[in-house]
Design brief:
Blueprint lengths: L4 H4 L2 H10 L3 H13 L3 H4 L14 H10 L6
Helix pairs in contact: 2-3, 3-5
Length: 73
């Protein structure tokens, strides 16, 4: 069985890696993993300024809505 992302990489490390990725594809892959695992980092999706560069992409809103449905915002 695969370990959850949070068991391998802490939320601060995930943030660092998201920021370090110059390409958005890998950043969205990490964000989707964190969201699927209900990682604490994922719950910060609407307020974490480190994710600002990803917000204009439609994939960001899709992942955000999976974590925090639009009706509850």
């Amino acid at each position: 069985m695969r370990k959850p992302l949070a068991a391998i990489i802490s939320p601060p490390q995930i943030r660092y890696r998201l920021r370090a990725f110059g390409r958005q594809g890998p950043a969205f892959a990490w964000l989707a993993k964190a969201a699927a695992e209900r990682n604490r980092f994922a719950l910060e999706i609407n307020v974490n300024p480190m994710l600002d560069p990803l917000r204009p992409d439609s994939r960001f809103e899709k992942i955000a809505n999976q974590i925090i449905p639009a009706a509850s915002k």
